[in-house]
Amino acid sequence: MFKILVAVKGSESCSAVAQKAQEMALLCKGSVTFLTIISTKHKLIRSKEEFEQLNLDLEETKKETEEALKTCSTLYGQCEVELGEKGLETERVVKEGNYIGQDICNYAEENNFDLIVIADKSDKTVKDKLLGSTAEKIIKHAKTSVLVVK
Question: How many Å apart are CA 7 and CA 19, to the nearest integer?
């Protein structure tokens, strides 16, 4: 069976990526796995101020993660229903990781996926422009085909 891995961060891109993965699954009679990587960034804390800032950052990350999962859950649920009605399998996976692009590539390779479906951009921050996007890292390092959805 053709295995499709859908990896999105949880933004407006969820809808387009989920829709494209659904189209591909129906064409190829494939299964779809929806993967979400939760960042677990760790750093050395040297002062009370750093500790307090880290707590604030963690609360913000938790809030963003919950929103992302909620948004994608609704969209994934719609795809799961439609694919299930056609007799196709779906699965949801949430993993922890610090290097999201590499974590997605590793998961795809370890589980023998035939296609990774991703959004072209999830964030438009200066940090992403300087460090390179997750999509670019996946395209460079994936050992399987990658479909980038705009």
Answer: 13
First to last CA, the chain: 26
The separation between CA 44 and the C-alpha centre of its own chain, rounded to angstroms, equals: 27
Q: Residue 65: left if φ>0, alpha if ψ -120 to 50, beta else—which one?
A: alpha
Contact (CB, 8 A) for 101 and 134? yes
Q: 38-49: b or e for each residue (b if 16 or more CB lie within 10 Å)?
A: eeeeeeeeeeee
**What domains are there in the chain, each with its CATH number?**
3-149 (3.40.50.620)
Q: What is the pTM of this model?
A: 0.77
Residue 33, SS3 per DSSP: strand
- Whether 142 and 116 have beta carbons less than 8 Å apart is answered as yes
State pLDDT tens for residues 62-108. 787 777 667 667 777 877 888 888 889 999 888 888 888 999 999 99
Q: Using an 8 Å Cβ cutoff, are 113 and 51 in contact?
A: no
**Percentages (nearest 5) of helix, strand, coil residues in the chain:** 55, 20, 25
Query: How far is the C-alpha of 24 from the C-alpha of 140, rounded, in Å?
Result: 22
